[in-house]
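anyone seen this seq b4? input:
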Amino acid sequence: MALYPSEADAALAAIRAGGTARDFETETLDFKEDRASQPETERLLAEAAICFANTAGGTVVLGIADKAKGPAAVSGSRSATTPIPCLFCFVFVRDAQ
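predicted toks r here
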């Protein structure tokens, strides 16, 4: 299965229009929020990477609450070196061996 960033783009547009992230999560797309600390967030992303590595790969969008609706779901991420809340998209692709 091909992995296209447009899957995440389409889901983000639908979330901004009033949907909830959990309604758009798939086997290759997952939304996550920052945890209380940077190490906890890193562990969360590592766990997601392991899950995707055991399947077809996938995309994790960090900075989206999976239960909130519409623009309120965009929580941003403080995982960057900058204090500005923003979104991060991590793509984990499994080697096709």
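The chain is about 30% helix and 15% strand. Strands lie at 29-32, 58-62, 88-92. kinda curious what u guys think
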